[in-house]
Amino acid sequence: MELRPLSFGEIFDRAVTLYVRNFVPIAAIVAVTIVPLSILQYVVDRAEAPYFAQIIAQAEHPVPAADPFASLAPLFGSPLTIAATLLLLVIGLVVWPFTLNAVAIGVARLYRGRPIEFANCYRAAIAPWLRVVGLIVVEFAILCAWYFALVFSAIIFGVVAVGLGGVALAVGIVVGIIGGAVVLAEIVLVGPLAIALTFAMYAIIIEREPLGAALQSGFTRVFSRAEFWRAVLFALAVGAIAIAAIVVAAVVASLMLLVHAVALEVIVSALVRVAIAPFSVVLLAVYYFDVRIRREGFDLETALDRLAGVPAPG
Question: Residue 64: its pLDDT value, please?
Answer without folding.
Answer: 56
